[in-house]
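Annotated sample (chain length 202).
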Amino acid sequence: MPEKKDFDENELNLILEEIGRMEATIEGLLDFSRERPLRRTCHDLKGPIRRALNLIEGRARQQKVVLRIIEVEESLFVNGDAEQLHQVFVNLLINAIEAMPDGGCLAITLSLPESRSHVQIQIHDTGNGIPEEILLRIFEPFATTKERGTGLGLAVSRRIIDQHGGSLFAQNAAEGGALFTIELPVAADQVSVHAGELVATI
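Output written by the structure step:
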């Protein structure tokens, strides 16, 4: 009969960490394979974005990341699933913070392009940017630069935005860092709005 081995604290912590990684991978796979129906409501997109910012604000402060929000004054009404859009914003914001382990600036810009047909959200970090070999397939499942990441978050995020009739793009900004751009159709009865910009810093 083989001798029973007692694990020390470090070994137990490592085992628990690996179990946590496997659980996260399984959960990510389930999210990716399970296409949830959209619960559409006409709502101001600033709501899900503000909730996402409130959720990650403490983490940003802890990591010395300054949040800068640039937004139009008027409401940005879309016909979409507020919870699933909130999930997308949280994922993109956390990714941006993790790209700046030594601190930096995270700019979130909400705008209405001249056509007034869609809302645009841009999330720009001052990290090292996305390696070119990853950029080409960044929205594919399991494409990631993170040692502990599953590479499914961006794939799920793109699918959610696609379901909303929108688009999600990634690029390296000319001034450095990664830039993610989301475009979502404006709710049909809200196409005519007034322009204006308000700059705020958290």
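Annotation: Residues 192-202 have pLDDT under 50 and may be disordered.
Annotation: Residues 9-33 form the longest helix (25 residues).
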